[in-house]
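Regression test case RT-17, inverse folding.

Input:
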């Protein structure tokens, strides 16, 4: 008998952790950090729900922290199995996980300074040595090739088109019936015609589907990211100040640089300095160059990431001094900094300095979870609390939906178009209205049997 247990990303857009038990094997699909509101983040301190040492393996769909960021904690709790990932995901993991350890340390130090932790002293969720121990367990393997994370469970990756290295996972699990039980874990599904990334590959038929639903209750406006970016950038230049782009350091930042350089090379936007203000984003550029074959360059006249990133207009700020140097710039220019939801990172210093200036444009280029500063700004806040101060918001706030790395409802529908109805489709990785929206959409438009699982809920998968 096979069993599927949802240990995270149920009712929230983070903490992806799905446990499959079949044929005596136990495999965790993704091992993400909970992010967003405090109540959600507190879940990171709870044990997994099954003993970490009892897991055979973790299969990662991609490197984003909400899918990989709990791995060091899992290792700290006794996990010693293999961590399986595509080569590009394996290459990105050190950047993301060491950065996450640094954030954990900073959070703990901040809590100690302000004395609000339940623990005295406050401790980080994990440390660099836990990251090093987790990275020792990583085994990269290419897409399209079957691998066996545990006896009785076979998997293979297909391109999910969501970020460098991303893959949805086709699983065959030993069953009591003749022939295996087939399950597909979508991970995060990318978008069609997204610049730099391939379209998501069509999913194979399956008995059970675990599908993301980040944008399950809406459709993105059907515009091209390059056109929207051109309009917003030219408007920002007209306003006369800096355009601050809050972005994930890995994936979105490189895509933005690529597109901005494409626009500048085509004369659609004037040549302007672009600062990539993040050591992690700078390191990620190198990983993107190593995996050029993964990318789809058909969008642009530029031959690839390397050309876009080697331009003298693209400046990377690795050190804090280099970052502070950007403050001296008065006039049009573009700063790309993390974090993507404005919950931390260097973007905060730029926001604190530039938000009161009406010449500034803030570009929001990704999903903004409830309770984040990014969401607050989008909701029209006139002040924003940063580093303990209320900062007046006079800047223009713009959003480009097209930059979302996630398929919307219509695109998930397109992705699943050729798939015969699974017995059950589980909708995960969505806030409750989005997960319900996707469930209703598939039920009404396709007649599929859908379930929105709760955290901790387990399902017997009949063979
Ligand atoms: Zn993702």
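Golden output:
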């Amino acid at each position: 008998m096979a069993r599927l247990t949802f240990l995270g990303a149920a009712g929230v857009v983070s903490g992806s952790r799905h446990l499959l038990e079949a044929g005596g094997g136990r495999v965790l699909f993704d091992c993400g950090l909970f992010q967003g509101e405090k109540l959600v983040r507190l879940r990171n301190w709870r044990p997994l729900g099954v003993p970490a040492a009892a897991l055979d393996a973790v299969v990662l769909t991609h490197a984003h922290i909400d899918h990989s960021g709990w791995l060091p904690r899992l290792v700290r709790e006794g996990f010693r199995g293999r961590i399986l990932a595509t080569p590009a995901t394996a290459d990105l993991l050190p950047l993301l996980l060491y950065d996450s350890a640094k954030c954990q340390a900073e959070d703990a130090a901040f809590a100690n300074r302000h004395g609000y932790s339940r623990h005295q002293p406050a401790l980080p969720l994990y440390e660099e040595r836990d990251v090093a121990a987790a990275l020792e367990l990583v085994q990269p393997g290419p897409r399209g090739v079957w691998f066996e994370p545990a006896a009785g469970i076979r998997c293979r990756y297909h391109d999910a088109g969501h970020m460098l290295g991303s893959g949805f996972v086709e699983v065959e699990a030993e069953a009591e019936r003749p022939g295996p039980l087939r399950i597909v874990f979508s991970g995060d599904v990318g978008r069609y015609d997204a610049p730099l990334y391939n379209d998501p590959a069509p999913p194979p038929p399956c008995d059970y589907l675990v599908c993301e639903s980040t944008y399950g209750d809406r459709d993105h406006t059907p515009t091209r990211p390059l056109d929207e970016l051109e309009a917003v950038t030219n408007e920002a230049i007209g306003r006369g100040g800096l355009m601050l782009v809050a972005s994930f350091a890995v994936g979105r930042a490189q895509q933005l640089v690529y597109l901005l350089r494409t626009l500048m090379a085509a004369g659609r936007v004037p040549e302007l300095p672009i600062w990539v203000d993040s050591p992690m984003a700078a390191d990620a550029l190198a990983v993107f160059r190593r995996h050029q074959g993964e990318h789809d360059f058909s969008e642009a006249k530029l031959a690839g990431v390397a050309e876009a990133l080697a331009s003298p207009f693209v400046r990377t700020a690795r050190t804090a001094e280099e970052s502070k140097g950007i403050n001296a710039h008065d006039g049009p220019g573009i700063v790309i900094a993390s974090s993507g939801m404005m919950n931390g990172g260097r973007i905060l210093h730029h926001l604190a300095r530039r938000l009161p200036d009406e010449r500034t444009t803030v570009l929001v280029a990704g999903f903004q979870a409830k309770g984040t500063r990014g969401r607050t700004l989008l909701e029209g806040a006139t002040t924003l609390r940063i580093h303990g101060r209320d900062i007046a918001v006079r800047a223009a706030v713009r959003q480009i939906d097209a930059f979302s790395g996630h398929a919307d409802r219509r695109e998930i529908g397109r992705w699943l178009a050729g798939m015969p109805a699974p017995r059950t489709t589980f909708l995960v990785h969505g806030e409750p209205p989005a997960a319900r929206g996707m469930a209703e959409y598939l039920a009404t438009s396709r007649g599929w049997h859908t379930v929105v699982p709760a955290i901790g809920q387990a399902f017997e998968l009949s063979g």
